[in-house]
Design a protein that fits this description.
- The chain has helices at about 45-50, 85-95, 110-130, 150-170, 180-185, 235-240, 265-275, 280-285, 295-315, and strands at about 15, 25-30, 35-40, 60-65, 75-80, 100-105, 135, 195-200, 205-210, 215, 220-225, 245-250, 255, 260-265, 285.
- By secondary structure, the protein is an alpha+beta fold.
- It folds into two domains: about 15-175, no CATH class; about 180-315, no CATH class.
- The protein starts with 13 loop residues before the first strand and ends with a helix.
């Protein structure tokens, strides 16, 4: 049995750890792609400035700590004729970012006009995706650089590869919105497992795992009571209520999800829904077989390892 569906095409990427450490400067690329991405921490900015990529024109993404539990990471997307000059200014004026990805072409085929168009498209995608809180105050017009039709196609092709590479590096601003993932994995074609979580108030939530995201489905309900207000995800819960992701239900004991929402972990989802500390792998259960999520993951991994061993034996 194959581990991957027959219609899935693999993708190779190349990562060069400049210091030999995953926490240092990382240069990333995709074979046969002219793009180049260099990632660095805020504290490593002086060393990034020594790189030849920093003296080029290009685009960049600033990002706050993506592992913070209380809210979506903040991001800023920009472009500059000389990246080092702009980033030095941002280090003085923006104190929230911890990592930066600078984006350029290795063959110098893009002009400032190309990067203006790329910046505009990236900002649009970040707004549509909803995976970051965007710090940009305006949205430049992608045609501001007066590019021709063929050049705009080149920018779009470049962007399609960039959207593959950036999430691998921990930058999720350009990932597609959850609604798009749900549409692609529509129920009539989707045989993936669904998970359930209930509460004594009558709250009942359903979720799926798609592309590494734990997605609570629209129509799910959560505990509206506030007696369990002390949990690590209270800020996220308050944010979802403030933004209308969860709204009061006709049943005053419940809140209802107005749209599909991707959580960073099943524990975060459970804590928001139950309004208390929660162990997601233990609390979520499969809809069909009533296994805990932890048990289901163990069986899935065991099956995948078995398939790999069978393939290796056949070879």
């Amino acid at each position: 049995m194959s581990v991957l569906p027959s219609d899935v095409i693999g993708q190779s990427i190349k990562l060069f750890l400049v210091d030999g450490s995953p926490n240092g400067l990382v240069v990333a690329s995709i074979p046969n792609w002219t793009g180049s991405v260099v990632v660095a921490s805020n504290l490593d900015l002086p060393r990034l400035m020594e790189r030849p990529e920093a003296d080029r024109a290009g685009c960049y993404i600033l990002q706050s700590d993506p592992d913070a539990e209380e809210a979506l990471p903040t991001a800023y997307i920009g472009q500059a004729r000389k990246l080092s000059t702009r980033l030095t200014k941002h280090q003085r004026e923006k104190d929230w970012w911890v990592r930066v990805a600078i984006i350029s072409t290795s063959d110098f085929s893009f002009t400032s006009a190309h990067y203006m168009a790329l910046e505009s498209k990236m900002i649009q995608l970040a707004k549509q995706g909803g995976h970051v809180a965007l710090d940009n105050g305006n949205s430049p017009d992608e045609s501001a650089g007066v590019l021709g039709e063929a050049d705009l196609v080149d920018v779009s092709k470049f962007l399609s590869q960039l959207r593959i590479l950036l999430p691998v590096l921990g930058f999720n601003a350009l990932r597609p919105p959850v609604s798009a993932k749900i549409a692609v994995n529509s129920p009539e074609h989707d045989v993936r497992e669904r998970f359930e979580l209930g509460h004594s108030t009558g709250a009942a939530a359903r979720a799926v795992i798609i592309d590494g995201d734990f997605i609570v489905l629209a129509g799910s309900s959560a505990n509206a009571h506030k007696e369990f207000a002390h949990n690590n995800y209270r800020h996220l819960r308050d944010k979802l209520i403030a933004e209308g992701v969860m709204v009061p239900s006709e049943d005053t004991r419940l809140l209802t999800f107005t749209k599909d929402f991707a959580f960073r972990s099943p524990s975060a989802a459970a804590a928001v829904i139950l309004n208390r500390q929660a162990n997601g792998p233990r609390d979520w259960r499969t809809e069909r077989t009533n296994l805990t999520l932890s048990e289901w993951l163990a069986r899935r991994d065991e099956a995948a390892n078995s398939d790999i061993e069978e393939q290796e034996a056949a070879e």
